[in-house]
Design brief:
With 99 residues, the chain is of the alpha+beta class. Helices cover 38% and strands 17% of the residues. The protein contains 3 helices and 4 strands; from the N terminus they run E-E-H-H-H-E-E. It has a 4-stranded antiparallel β-sheet with strand order 1-2-3-4. Strand 3 and strand 4 form a beta hairpin. Helix 1 packs across helix 3.
């Protein structure tokens, strides 16, 4: 039995999507770790209420390396079209506003 695809064979996910002035979406990357870590840990309590019970994320002791590995996993899933994680970024990409 063949596995049914959920996306067309030739599907290409967008590389960047403008939202409003000064803000856009683009696929998250492992290299976003520095700005991701700041945003995640600043919002950890809210994120834990949303995801903590199900995923144990984000742990209070999350390291830079653990966050980078998590982001690399998200990026690989996106390339494989298994799931999609877009970063909401300022146009200069110095601030990650969410995912």
């Amino acid at each position: 039995m063949s596995e049914e695809r959920w996306l067309p064979e030739d599907f290409e996910h967008p590389g960047s999507v403008p939202l409003v002035d000064g803000v856009h979406l683009r696929p998250i990357r492992a290299s976003d770790v520095d700005i991701d870590m700041v945003t995640v840990m600043a919002n950890r309590d809210m994120l834990w209420r949303m995801y903590g019970d199900a995923w144990g994320w984000p742990p209070a002791s999350m390291t830079h390396e653990e966050d980078e590995e998590d982001l690399a996993h998200h990026a690989a899933d996106m390339e494989a079209h298994a799931s999609f994680n877009y970063a909401v970024l300022t146009d200069d990409e110095t601030r990650l506003l969410g995912c």
